[in-house]
Amino acid sequence: MKLYEKLADEIGEAVRRGVFAAGERIPSVRQASQQHGVSIKTVLHAYALLEGRGLIETRPQSGYFVRERAVPKAVHGGRTAKPATPAAEVDVSRLVLSTLRSIRAHDAVPFGSPYPDPTLFPWRRINQYANAIARRHSSWNLIDDLPPGNPELIRQIARRYAENGVPVDPSEIIVTLGATEAINLSLQAVAKPGDTVVVESPTYYAMLHAIERLGMRAIAVATHPAEGIDLDVLAQIIGKQKIAACMVMPNFQNPLGFQMPDERKRRLVELLSEHDIPVIENDVYQELYFGETRPTTLKNFDMKGLVLHCGSFSKSLTASYRIGWAMPGRYRAQVEKLKFLNTLTTPSVPQVAVADYLRQDGYDRHLRHVRRFYRQQARLMSAMVQRFFPPDTRISTPQGGYVLWVELSPRVDSMRLYRAALAQGITVGPGYMFSMRNDFRHFIRLNYSYPWTAQSEAALKTLGGLVATMA
Amino acid sequence: MKLYEKLADEIGEAVRRGVFAAGERIPSVRQASQQHGVSIKTVLHAYALLEGRGLIETRPQSGYFVRERAVPKAVHGGRTAKPATPAAEVDVSRLVLSTLRSIRAHDAVPFGSPYPDPTLFPWRRINQYANAIARRHSSWNLIDDLPPGNPELIRQIARRYAENGVPVDPSEIIVTLGATEAINLSLQAVAKPGDTVVVESPTYYAMLHAIERLGMRAIAVATHPAEGIDLDVLAQIIGKQKIAACMVMPNFQNPLGFQMPDERKRRLVELLSEHDIPVIENDVYQELYFGETRPTTLKNFDMKGLVLHCGSFSKSLTASYRIGWAMPGRYRAQVEKLKFLNTLTTPSVPQVAVADYLRQDGYDRHLRHVRRFYRQQARLMSAMVQRFFPPDTRISTPQGGYVLWVELSPRVDSMRLYRAALAQGITVGPGYMFSMRNDFRHFIRLNYSYPWTAQSEAALKTLGGLVATMA
Predict the structure, then answer these.
(1) Distance from CA of B147 to the nearest CA of A (A)
(2) Which of A24, A383, A444, B166 could form a Cys-Cys staple with B161, CB 3.0–4.6 A?
(3) d(Cα A16, Cα A292) in Å, to the nearest integer?
(4) β-pair partners for B66
(5) Is the separation of the CB atoms in B291 and B399 below 8 Å?
(6) Which residues of B touch A314 (CB under 8 A)?
(7) What angle do CA B442, B448, B450 make, to 5 degrees?
(8) Do A140 and B342 touch (CB under 8 A)?
């Protein structure tokens, strides 16, 4: 390979990896010559090659820039459906559990994982706190950390909300076993078997699980990939039938990745308040924003205590400890009681270890690092899907979190794709998981939290090939 | 105080503390003279005094013995009641939670605690394993320990059952967040809202909580303080109405403390099997037996996979980690799915730390120590209640575990006693917690897991005084 070809490949790779983003200027010919220790002529030759490959372009008087790719078409949002009771046999949870199991094979490429890459977590620091607890105390007393939970942990959670402008009363917080339990308890506190609950379309499957577990009915409301749940449709539904609760994910919704604009958050809370309908807000990705500032929550707009806010450290700090919480507004007493009935208490050591970490360590520094990394990864994964997938592929524009939502040709069945990919050691999240009625059979969810490697690139290429074959 | 009086007090105290048990021989006059460095005459004088106090007796040709106390009258068992739906307002869980909260005050004497003294746990050893995990692994993966749970922990649990003759298939075991979750999931797997469930009378309140949480109906069946649930009454009930499940605690039932005889365990399983009624066996005290050998479980007699066996390490190893499990027989798939829906997964580090402890450390040695201690404590607490409580008091004869069930004069209301005792810094477990219809309003449960101190002795004396006043 000639020297200018090698240089072109190197820079091309950097572009693909998102080191230079679309529209960004790349080093001038002189700079590149110095950086790479090659002649001006070699750089000019390499840049010409990259231009020929369509990766960069020259702009008069300005230099060389990474070409703006064709703006990817946005994914379609979901549609509004009639109420459905999750059937016992074709249940979402079975599919989700089997999907999760398939990720167990550690050598599979984990595009299908719902969890963030655990190597990003400051597990060593947190374990140090857990160890220190052992030295500090002679024994552990279950009683101390009974619901609502360890007082210091509750104080630390409350502090973070307060610092970010979310109105919070520490006595409202109840520690749970992850957000999963918080969501389950919140739903059980406000609705009973047979009741109808509004969810987003697509919706995060944990919402469907909670509904399924409690024998309730669900109605899915069209949800825009950038703006969130359709408020006009929601208003119509509320006007027509009795709705026991609404379950939404206003920040970095899984799978769509949108951040619901503040004005729409406010309108959602007001609309539901008018009808005294409680809303369960799943806000587990709140800390993983790509913007300049932390997003608001529905709590910011809640005047009547109708927002049951659910949070967790499992996406942002550690998934091993399963520390989540509920801030259930006026339903506090019910949720606390249900927590007690459901699992008695959340284990002590994890509660105290997380509290100590929050008090003493660099959680914000850790989060800044993670946010930066995920933002880059989102860009990288989007670029890679455009590169390897058929041109009719549509993708989401995540504003936080670590998943990309991909709309394939309607001819592609995501379960068939899932099985074909698994056979090649690659997992994907089939769209089937995100509704009760298979509204998203040609969609998949891809996890981009893991560092990009030659293996993952090859896997995504393979996946693109499979999609092309099926389409 | 004269020397012989001092010696008499010392030996009398040893008798009261259970150092010398009823019917046991105390040191000969010569031995006592040597041990205490006093004259033969002083010992003779002291022993005469103790004889006069009714604490010891001489037996011809044999020496001095601790007097057999009058055999305490056994507590009454419960009665069979008509089915009852736990009412939302007068719920058992609220009372239980407030009772537990009252134990939070660390300076209160914890007779009301349902938990074993945590200082008995080998917490230092277990924490060492947790620390070692941190060194061994670079990160923790939620996926590995998804339901059914960490494979090594499951293997260790299965091994213990196998070694004790309980037929077990490791693939049947599902790790849960304590027995609380195991019981909840088991009940939800076999019965639905509105169904009728049979419980013991008195029954452990966690059973009532599970029924309350799921909106089911309960029917309490008379339970004998030594033999367990009345099988004839149970047979009649089954013959007359549809029963969705039966919930029992055949080993060291809380609060009665009995070990159901093997023959009755067999008959119970057979009776329910004939009608295909699943039985939820809460066996959390199994390791805390006072006899020579580990008791059998209902699983030993289960031919049809109808026993949903629930266990936990919270009573015998560590309450901080909240590691429990279910062995749900033919309902395995349902329970696993419900575990996934309820709390997704049990935290990893606690699972692995307990597995490592079980594999490498002296769990059996620890258990032998705990069993010996609780056996002594049971004797001591029984003797103390006889000493300080009115003569019409009846007590249970625990065959394992760490609670004593005390029947007071019918004129004593245990809630009034509870509040009066709490005002004096003493907690008790009011009998109200053990039924839905206040069948045990003049009963209390006392925890004897904590080492006996001057403070606890004074507290029990105070308690006896309060009872006498109320009677």
Answers:
(1) 9
(2) B166
(3) 25
(4) B56
(5) yes
(6) 142
(7) 140
(8) no
Q: What residues in A contact B178, CB-CB < 8 Å?
A: 343-344
Task: List, by residue range, all CATH 3.40.640.10 domains of chain A.
Answer: 139-360
- Mutant choice from B180, B342, B348, B447 vs A, greatest count of A C-beta within 10 A: B342
Give the H or E element holding residue A229.
strand A228-229
Region(s) of chain B under CATH 3.90.1150.10 = 365-470
What class does CATH assign to A3-66?
mainly alpha
Which of A138, A139, A212 to probe the B interface (max B CBs under 10 A)?
A139
Interchain proximity B118–A134, CB inside 8 Å = no
Interface contact flag, A134 B123, Cβ < 8 Å: yes
Question: Nearest-CA residue of chain B relative to A117?
Answer: B141
* Nearest by CB: B349 against A210, A320, A344: A320
pLDDT surpasses 80 at A329:
yes
Q: Strand B323-327's sheet: what is its strand order?
A: B174-177, B323-327, B307-312, B279-282, B245-248, B196-201, B217-224, B228-229
Q: Check A104 against B143: CB less than 8 A apart.
A: yes
Which whole-number Å values give the CA distances from A227 to A74, A336, A443, B12, B289, in the listed order? 12, 33, 19, 80, 61
Report phi then psi at B200, rounded to 5: -80, 165
Do residue B320 and residue A180 have CB atoms under 8 angstroms apart?
no
Site from B209, B349, B352 to mutate, A interface, most A CB atoms within 10 angstroms: B349
**What's residue A423's pLDDT?**
92
**Cα B106 from Cα B334, distance rounded (Å):** 41
Query: Helix (H, G, I), strand (E, B), or coil: what is residue B185?
Result: helix
How many residues belong to chain A?
A: 471
The pTM of the full predicted model, rounded to 2 decimals, is 0.82
Which two tokens mark A249? Answer: 């994910």
ipTM for the whole complex: 0.79
Q: Give span(s): CATH 3.40.640.10, chain B.
A: 125-360
Between A and B, how many CB-CB pairs are < 8 A?
A: 170
The C-alpha angle A143, A146, A151, rounded to 5 degrees, equals 100
Comparing alpha-carbon positions, the chain B residue that sits nearest to A345 is B322
Looking at the domain B125-360, which fold is it? Aspartate Aminotransferase; domain 2 (3.40.640)
Tens-place pLDDT, residues B236-265: 999 999 999 999 999 999 999 999 999 999
CATH annotation of B365-470: 3.90.1150.10
CATH number of A139-360: 3.40.640.10
pLDDT, chain B, mean: 88
All residues of chain B having their beta carbon less than 8 Å from the beta carbon of residue A315 are none
Q: Which class for B293: exposed (0-12), middle (13-18), buried (19 or more C-beta within 10 A)?
A: exposed
Where in chain A is CATH 1.10.10.10? Answer: 3-66
Residue with tokens 């807000």: A281
Nearest chain A residue to B102 by CA distance is A143
